[in-house]
Amino acid sequence: MENQTILYMLVLSGLSDLPSLQLPLFLVFLLVYLMTLTGNLLIVLLICTDSHLQTPMYFFLGTLACLDMGYCSVTIPRMLFDFHTQTMLISIQACITQIFFFVFFAVSEVFLLAVMSYDRYVAICRPLHYTQIMHWKACVLLVLGVLIFSMLYPLVHILLLLKLTFCTINPLQSFFCDLPQLLLVSCSDTFINVLLILILVIFLGGGVFALTFCPYVIILNTIMKMSKAMRSKAFSTCSSHLTVVFIFYGTSLFSYFHPNAKDHSAADKVASVIYTVLTPIGNPLIYSLRNKEIKISFKRAVCRLIQI
């Protein structure tokens, strides 16, 4: 430590170091960000104003839309700022703050997707007991539980991060402050940090993964016993959720757990863009394009506006 200078500012590598690409990338991601906010806000407004959509399934979908708006707002505005200024500098405090909110929204989405799987299981496999099990109090408590736990989870990592010092001049190989990348530029012993990540990911992540996918084994078995008309409706409600789950889990697992994850190549950055930027804009598109009730509700809202 004697010959090492403690750093208070970090450098982000960004998506590209070519000056000619900064303005086009800025405009593209600004458009994506505005579309993400608009699409998710529209879903929230439809669910809040249309009585036909005020059911547990759409309550969870509205919550997911709110999380998506927060999730993309953690990374995209900072990315746009770096495209505009081309400085790529971020303070340690700002970096740790970004990590807290990024992990909070990411974990919230993971747990909410598991809750939505359970909701689909009850709706399809136990339809006669659906209103008794998924009543409003239960739905609100589930969401509150998800948010409270998701706030405590990153807090554990943040408390450990605050004890580290950073003295490596190597830039973070990402366009946002990512927890594994930040640990790589620390000159402190990060064994406890890494061990905690592994333990929580294996036990907690594995449990949530099972809670998300296991209900679909029972759901698919139940759907195959239904009539053709009921089967088509059940598939339409489940396919949207499964599409979102596969995109989120697939890109996240590729980015963090493939053999060369530490290298953070161009493919890793593409995967990061998908699960941090494109997934939040993809969710409202997937749910609106594949959901008849959302489309009908949108048409009703447009008609009301025209009549005004």
Automatic annotation (TrEMBL):
GO molecular function, one term: G protein-coupled receptor activity
Transmembrane segments: 25-46, 58-76, 88-115, 136-156, 191-219, 240-258, 270-289
Gene3D superfamilies: Rhodopsin 7-helix transmembrane proteins
InterPro entries according to UniProt: GPCR_Rhodpsn (IPR000276), GPCR_Rhodpsn_7TM (IPR017452), Olfact_rcpt (IPR000725), Olfactory_GPCR (IPR050516)
The G-protein coupled receptors family 1 profile domain, residue ranges: 39-287
This protein's UniProt keywords: Cell membrane, G-protein coupled receptor, Membrane, Olfaction, Receptor, Sensory transduction, Transducer, Transmembrane, Transmembrane helix
A single Gene Ontology CC term: plasma membrane
Protein family according to the UniProt entry: Belongs to the G-protein coupled receptor 1 family.
Protein name: Olfactory receptor
Species this protein is from: Hymenochirus boettgeri
Taxonomic classification: Eukaryota, Metazoa, Chordata, Craniata, Vertebrata
